[in-house]
Structures are given as C-alpha cells and as structure tokens.
Predict the structure.
Amino acid sequence: MISVQEAKHIILENSQDFGIEDIPFIQSVGRILKENIVADRDFPPFNRVAMDGIAINYRFFKEGIRNFKIEGIQPAGSIQKTLKNATNCYEVMTGATLPNNTDTVIRYEDVQITNGTATIVVTAIKEGQNIHEKGSDKIQGNLLIKENTCISPAEIGVLATVGKATVKVAKRPKVMIVSTGDELVGVHENPLAHQIRRSNVYTLVSLLEKLSIPSETAHITDEKPILKEKIAAFLQEYDVLLFSGAVSKGKFDFLPEVLEELNVEKLFHKVTQRPGKPFWFGRSTFFGMSEQNVNKNSKTNTVVFAFPGNPVSTYVNCMVYFYDWYYTSVGIKTKEETAVISENVIFKPTLTYFLQVKLSYHLGNLIATPIKGNGSGDLASLVSADGFIEIPKTEETEFKKGSVFKVIKYR
C-alpha cells in the first residue's frame, strides 16, 4: 500500500500527450488551447465612438462656442468621414469611427438639436471624452490568450475578433467507462430486492464532461472469461479505461487478476486513504497498426484507473487522480485551494482522509463544514456536500477548528 503522494506521483509520471487538432473556434469551449493568440491589429483598430451623440473639436467649446452646425452623420460601420468646417460637428453613433478633425464626443442627452444645429446644454465637458482610443486595449502583436488556456465563452469572442476561424487545441483521450457486477441493472429497469441501478458509471461520465471529455460506457457481468474478453478489446481501442468496482477482496473481484493476465502493468494497488483505499492503477502497451500506415506498427499506451465501487470512493478518486492526470497530460497547471474547517474533526486511522464538506465564505475565507454521511457507500451524501478537504496522513487523531487544508471542490 502506498501513500496518496506516491500514488499522485506515479499517475502524473504516466501522463500522455495526445497531440493537437484544428477545430472550428465556435466548437472550442472547454477545450485546451494549443497556440498563442495575438492581436492581428490594434484593439480597437480605430478611434471608436463610445456614445451616441455629436463629435466636435474641443478647442471651440473651450473658446465658448456652444452651438455647432451638424455637418453630417457618421454611422457605425461606415468609412471615416472628415469634418470640413472645424466649428461644425458630426452626429456619431456608438461603435463608429471618430470623424477626422474631431476629438471629443458629447452624448445626445447633453445636447439639444434644432433646425440642424446642436446646442451643448451642459456647462463642462472633458477633451477626448467618450472616445475609445485606437490601440488603448491592445496593440498589434500583443499576446491576447496564452497557450494552455481552457477556452471559455470569453475567449470565443477574442478568437472571433482576431479572425481565428479554426483554432489549435489539445486532442482528448478516448475513454471507456466500465461498471462491473451482477447486482447492477440499467437506469430504466426496475431492480429486484437484491439489485441496484447503475449510477457510478454515469457519475464518471458527468465528471469527465466537466472536463469536456466525451466517453463511452459499458457494463460487464461478474464472469471472468467475459470480463477478460471485453477488456482485451477495450485495451486495443481506448486511451483510458475507467473502472468502478471489482478491485477489492471479494470472491468475484476479478479485475486485478484479469488485468495481470492481459499484461497490464500494475503500478500500484491500494492507497493509504479513506475513502477509496482499494484503488488500482496501471498501464498497457499495445502494438497495433498505425492509422497513417497499415504496414507499420504503432505503440499505444492505455492507462487504467480502477476505482473501488462505492460511490463516494469512485467520486473522490476521479477528482483527485484522474483530473490531475488529465490536466498534466494537456499542459494545464492548476492552483491549489485551501479551506478552514469550521469544527474539530476526529479521525483515528493513520490514513489520508478525504472528508466531505459544505463550503461557504466568511470574512473572505473559505469555510469547510464537515458533512456527516454514512460512509463511502452513501451516494446521497454527495448531494449535501460541495467538495472534499484532504487531511494528510498523520499520527494525530484530532484536527482543530480553524485548521487549513487543501480543498477539492465540485460545485
């Protein structure tokens, strides 16, 4: 049995680069950017009118002139016009190019227009007001979005602005999520008294969707030959296999044995933690035909995360281990968050403890209030919590109110 830190180290050492692909920018939300995005021109690209109103030459306002004859209109999207008589003005619309020979915009609310003349009715204005100056945000060549950014709707607008119709992103691993056990039935079935519906597999699907990773699912009964046959096929087709169940000491927990027979290298089995101690992790190297050249062999590594079947164990192990593996694989650096526990916690085994907590803020601090569930099989307790705090393995048995620990949030 190894420590949580050792398990994390081994898993991160087995991260993988799945390559890069070009996709339409509008489909890239949630994907990991694999190129720097720079400004293709100044932002904004011209002196941009920021308010509907009139544009004047401030010098004449300063000299006491308040009535300005309207020489024309500068709509948004039209070619820049030029004020011919410096004592006149132009009507201008938000987003339009500022007309030549003008330097100040007065909003419509501060003028009265009568018979083609605009009269300024406020006593004070500032030179250059209501103008978004060319290049004031960014200049051509400035870095706008760094490589390895997770693309959000905010980045989509920038990609569109710089004309990135397609964008380079990290390819996603091909993932199969497998549940095992004769006691499990489908969501739409009516379970018998000794059965339960499959739930962990859909929890894992949803946890991966939060990372924008699509996945497929399968269920295999507790028959070793069938288990072996199915897994052998999955190892050749998928980059990642995620299992829920069949890794403990039960007589029908065949998974570790089957994986060994299929030459999947066990990198560890069992971690000094609660919940999720029976966690199994390994990798398989498959020699198959390259997609590019069927006459050449290609080596494909498949990593295997085999989580214990209790729902809280599956949940926490996915967040603690698979998430970090994926972030490392695609080049994302995550920032550790901490929380303050709101009450004393007593935990006697010398294990790392992933404690379910409800999270709230008080005076700028993130506060973690323990949730009293009924162990790792208490699926409903996940709904009552917002995350886990990680209490490191120690000889201590009591952790005082006000102590600070790493927090893993899922809300």
Observations:
- The two ends are 31 Å apart (CA to CA).
- The mean pLDDT is 91.
- The CA atoms of residues 340 and 404 lie 5 Å apart.
- The first helix runs from residue 4 to 13.
